[in-house]
Write a structure and sequence with these properties.
This protein is an alpha+beta fold. Helix content is 48%, strand content 13%. A 4-stranded antiparallel β-sheet has the order 1-2-4-3. The longest helix is centred in the middle third of the chain and has 38 residues, at 113-150. It is elongated.
Length: 295
């Protein structure tokens, strides 16, 4: 007896290839790699899946795999990236949801000289920005250290100066007046009211505000403080920054009116001797809704 497999026709897999060129994005928008590779694809008719354009499915799959490799890389790394890309695309994979299998070989990756020069300038700008930001962070830390830990009182400032200047006591005594002035200057920032500090922070972030817009900013801040901090916080802020009385609440909408709950209707109860229960001759239904069984 012959088995069913002997009568089952399985077509041999068919293979195709296509030389394809495309730009591939780098980590910098507008600066692209230029790639060229040979795409090989085949269809597996025994998989039970189908795709109406197997070549497009293969090309799209290979290009998307290539983009995933290049889009996080800089143009200056094109030489090692070529081999990384060749290694990634050489692996034959099934295109998801289709009967197509695709891979690529003979991968070439190049960059334009002008784009490469722009990429180098971009890296220099990033490096300079990173260094400047690190310097600013160090300056902020130093200022915060001097204000919050050194110049808190005259004795602390004097001991700090002695430690930094070889413990020259006579000089430290002579500088007591200057150190005291520095302590008082540093205390001015610590004694600043929180409302003034809040307004100063917003205005430093938006330095081009006009006078009218600065007033609007204070009003909006007062309204926000009223919502999240309560009327007392908003009133303290308005008084400190010079807003007129009642200004924080000028744009607030009145609360919606409350609708009193309605009482349920009272139930009408009748006793056994209620005259409404009595049936008169010729009545079909009494007042209490009970039909007259004698009609």
């Amino acid at each position: 007896m012959r088995r069913a497999e002997q009568f089952t026709f399985v077509p041999p897999p068919t293979t195709h290839e296509l030389v394809f060129e495309t730009p591939l994005p780098s980590a910098v928008y507008g600066l692209d790699f230029h790639a060229k590779f040979t795409i090989h694809w085949r269809v597996d008719l025994a998989s039970g899946l189908r795709h109406h354009s197997p070549r497009s499915a293969a090309v799209n799959d290979v290009v998307q795999r290539a983009r995933a490799v290049t889009e996080g890389s800089m143009l200056v790394h094109h030489a090692p990236l070529k081999h990384q890309l060749g290694d990634e695309l050489a692996d034959e994979r099934q295109v998801e949801g289709t009967h197509v299998w695709a891979r690529a070989e003979h991968v070439e990756l190049r960059v334009d000289d002008t784009d490469l020069e722009m990429a180098r300038k971009h890296i220099e700008l990033l490096r300079a920005t990173t260094i400047r930001q690190a310097e600013r962070d160090a300056e902020r830390d130093e200022i915060r250290y001097l204000r919050d830990e050194v110049l808190t009182d005259l004795s602390t400032a004097t001991i700090w100066w002695l430690h930094r200047n070889g413990y020259q006591v006579e000089q430290a005594v002579g500088l007591a007046q200057q150190l005291g002035d520095l302590v008082r200057i540093a205390a001015q920032r610590r004694d600043q009211h929180w409302a003034d500090a809040l307004v100063a922070s917003f205005e430093s972030a938006i330095p081009r505000l006009s006078h009218d817009h600065r007033t609007d900013l204070r009003q909006h801040l007062a309204q926000a403080l009223g919502v999240y901090g309560g009327t007392s916080v908003a009133a303290e802020f308005a008084d400190q920054v010079g807003l007129p009385q009642g200004q924080p609440q000028q744009n607030q909408q009145p609360p919606p009116p409350t609708i009193p709950a309605q009482k349920p209707p009272e139930q009408l109860t009748t006793g056994p001797d209620d005259p409404r229960d009595r049936l008169e001759p010729g009545d079909a239904t009494p007042r209490n809704g009970v039909a007259n069984p004698h009609r």
